[in-house]
Write a structure and sequence with these properties.
Layout: H1 2-25, H2 31-51, H3 69-89, H4 107-128, H5 144-161, H6 169-193, H7 199-209, H8 228-248, H9 267-285, H10 305-324
Helix pairs in contact: 2-4, 2-5, 3-4, 3-5, 3-9, 6-7, 6-9, 6-10, 7-10, 8-9, 8-10
Length: about 325
């Protein structure tokens, strides 16, 4: 009897643990939960910057209205990358680098990334300010756009922590190059799947990856004296072409802001466009049967808007080739 009761107690403990595990696994977070984490990290970082006498913080504005969890996720990836670089430079344990993958992200996925952000900023706070007496506040009714706008301001503050006054062409270039490499990889992957009877189609794809055409023509060369507004105009053109490809695969398209929305175009505005482009390119991978993640951005230096424009131009060129082949039917 005693053995029976002992076994029964053990079974009850195991059952309780399993139920707790299932309950934990099923926990769903909302945009309000994500917003709370970002707000908490922001309040911590404000005090760190104040302690370091870092002032003159320019907080950017987003003109995007169609915001989905995947866009917030992508911006989190960029913010974590900047924190990673800060940690490495200051001999701190860096946060884990995160990647963008071709999956449908949920607010819970975004929440886990904000946990990485807030945990690392907590450590920076304790190193620079002292004992942390702050706690996350509770919010309700927040939408992905609210989260996105708040996170963009936190991103700008992380750059300020790193010593940069604001988003510069360097950050925009790093993200644009990242997007270009990603779509080059997509095109080369598609070309390898084509059989010998599709040789012409294969050549069209492979040459596009290098800015060329089988007829001997090339993508237009480097153009000087480009401005942030030129970069944004090119980015909006790219987004329209991504929407064309999404329509081919019956993926819901997103509203794109008008160039007139950007009364004073800045690198910050261009940076946000890169985040949308990367997120939207990832959406195209699923119907193409491509599973690879987007690589992390490589830090860029001494870049100007013309350098960014050249990368945008190549992305545009690649998308033109895909559209001309109707996205490549596989």
């Amino acid at each position: 009897m005693r053995i029976y009761l002992s076994a029964l107690r053990s079974l009850l403990v195991i059952t309780s643990l399993l139920l707790c595990s299932i309950s934990y696994a099923e926990k769903k977070y909302t945009p309000s939960d994500v917003y709370a984490n970002i707000d908490y990290a922001t309040r911590l970082l404000e005090q760190v910057l104040d302690k370091k006498n870092i002032t003159n913080i320019s907080l950017p504005t987003s003109y995007e209205t169609a915001v989905k969890p995947m866009h917030v996720y992508e911006l989190n990836v960029a913010a974590i990358s900047e924190l990673y670089r800060f940690a490495i430079k200051n001999s701190l344990t860096p946060p884990p680098l995160t990647f963008s993958s071709p999956i449908k992200y949920s607010p819970s996925d975004v929440y886990y990334l904000t946990e990485i952000l807030s945990n690392k900023i907590e450590q920076i706070y304790e190193d620079n300010v002292g004992v942390n007496l702050l706690y996350p506040d509770i919010f309700s009714g927040k939408k992905p756009k609210d989260v996105y706008d708040k996170l963009f301001k936190l991103y700008a503050m992380i750059l300020r922590l790193r010593g940069f006054e604001k988003v510069s062409p360097n950050q925009v270039y790093a993200q644009t190059h990242r997007a270009k490499v990603d779509i080059q990889s997509i095109i080369l992957t598609l070309s390898k799947r084509l059989n010998d009877s599709q040789f012409d189609q294969k050549r069209l794809l492979v040459t596009a990856a290098y800015g060329m055409h089988p007829d001997g023509s090339k993508m237009k060369g480097y153009e000087e004296n480009k401005t942030p507004k030129d970069v944004i105009t090119s980015a909006l053109s790219i987004r329209k072409k991504i929407n064309q490809l999404k329509q081919l695969y019956k993926i819901q398209t997103l509203a794109i802001p008008s160039i007139t929305s950007f009364s004073k175009a800045t690198p910050s505005d261009a940076f946000l466009q890169t985040q949308y482009i990367i997120a939207e390119i990832n959406l195209l991978k699923s119907p193409l049967g491509i599973n690879h993640s987007t690589d992390v951005a490589i830090e860029a230096k001494n870049k100007v808007p013309s350098d960014v424009y050249q990368e945008m131009k190549h992305i545009d060129y690649l998308l033109d080739r895909l559209i001309a082949q109707k996205g490549v039917s596989l």
